[in-house]
């Protein structure tokens, strides 16, 4: 969703269905790390809410990063090269 500022805002969420707090926090940490390493690839002025889903429980860090980049490309929020 576009916002009228120059910066990006991002939020991370993981519902209780994913498991105990330790697991939910781990998933959010992995998502934050994927965002942190690739935030310069995302255009400014967007608000992101990244929600962890069930398949993330079995995914590794590389798969999460790949999925994050693919979703950003699908949403057309990557910086044009």
TrEMBL record:
InterPro entries membership: Ribosomal_Su5_D2-typ_SF (IPR020568), Ribsml_uS5_D2-typ_fold_subgr (IPR014721), RNase_P (IPR000100), RNase_P_CS (IPR020539)
SUPFAM superfamilies: Ribosomal protein S5 domain 2-like
EC number(s) recorded for this UniProt protein: 3.1.26.5
Gene Ontology MF terms in the entry: 3'-tRNA processing endoribonuclease activity; ribonuclease P activity; tRNA binding
Keywords recorded for this protein, A-Z: Endonuclease, Hydrolase, Nuclease, RNA-binding, tRNA processing
PANTHER family: RIBONUCLEASE P PROTEIN COMPONENT (PTHR33992:SF1)
Function recorded in the entry: RNaseP catalyzes the removal of the 5'-leader sequence from pre-tRNA to produce the mature 5'-terminus. It can also cleave other RNA substrates such as 4.5S RNA. The protein component plays an auxiliary but essential role in vivo by binding to the 5'-leader sequence and broadening the substrate specificity of the ribozyme.
Protein known as: Ribonuclease P protein component
Native organism: Sporomusa ovata
């Amino acid at each position: 969703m576009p916002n009228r500022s120059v910066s990006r805002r991002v939020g991370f969420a993981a519902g209780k269905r994913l498991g105990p707090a330790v697991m939910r926090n781990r998933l959010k940490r992995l998502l934050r790390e994927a965002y942190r390493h690739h935030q310069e690839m995302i255009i400014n002025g967007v608000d992101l809410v990244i929600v962890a889903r069930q398949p993330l429980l079995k995914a590794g860090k590389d798969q999460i990063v790949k999925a994050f980049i693919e979703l950003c490309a699908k949403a057309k929020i990557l910086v044009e090269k």
